Amino acid sequence: MHDLMKFLHILAVVLLLGNLLMAPFWRKLLAAGGEQARSVANRSMRTADLLFTLPGWVIVLVTGLVLAFQRGWKGNGWIHLSLTLFAGWVILWHMLVLPARKAMIAAADTPALGGQATAALAQHERRWQQWTYVSAAIVTVILLLMVARPFTR
User: Fold this and answer.
1) Who's near 80: CB < 8 A, 6+ residues apart?
2) What is the mean pLDDT of residues 74-79?
3) 76 has which bridge partners?
């Protein structure tokens, strides 16, 4: 059971971190085809979040907690710090990344329907990209804590 949990945990981390690092790249690449492509690209980020980010963080959290309880986490400061960072990441995701994505999608719809692209659209896209990369940095720090296991008594 422990090996299965560990495998699922690592797989979910790869999916989560991979999506966080690659989504801005893929969005920019897809958006290069004009206003309609930009709108589709921005909407595809919602799909990527539903297929990779959401399941990734749920599986990471559940399997991580199972593994922590199985092995006992008392005296392991790296687990406490990792869980604190994870909680902060989830809050950041919901308060900054998701609203930026929603605004980005809404702002991309007008030019896709024949209107003019606004400066707000580029601003929303930059904000979403910025917070996505900040999210990836936090998850990377958590990954490094999991591997290095500092603060172990």
Assistant:
1) 73
2) 77
3) 152
Helix (H, G, I), strand (E, B) or coil at 6: helix
Beta bridge partners of 152: 76
Report pLDDT digits (tens) over 86-145.
Answer: 999 999 999 999 999 999 988 887 766 666 667 888 899 999 999 999 999 999 999 999
Q: CB of 132 within 8 A of CB of 64?
A: no
Query: How is 89-117 classified by DSSP, letter by letter?
Result: HHHHIIIIIHHHHHHHHHHHHHHHTTS--
Computed from CA positions of residues 128, 34, 51, 67, in that sequence, does the dihedral angle turn out positive or negative?
Answer: negative
| pTM of the predicted model as reported, rounded to 2 decimal places | 0.84
Q: How far is 49 from 72, CA to CA, in rounded Å?
A: 32
For the purposes of burial, counting CB atoms within 10 Å of the CB of 147, is it exposed (0-12), middle (13-18) or buried (19 or more)? Answer: exposed
Q: How far is CA 127 from CA 1, 19, 64, 65, 90, in A?
A: 41, 17, 30, 31, 17
Token pair 């991580």 is found at 64
* DSSP category for residue 58: H
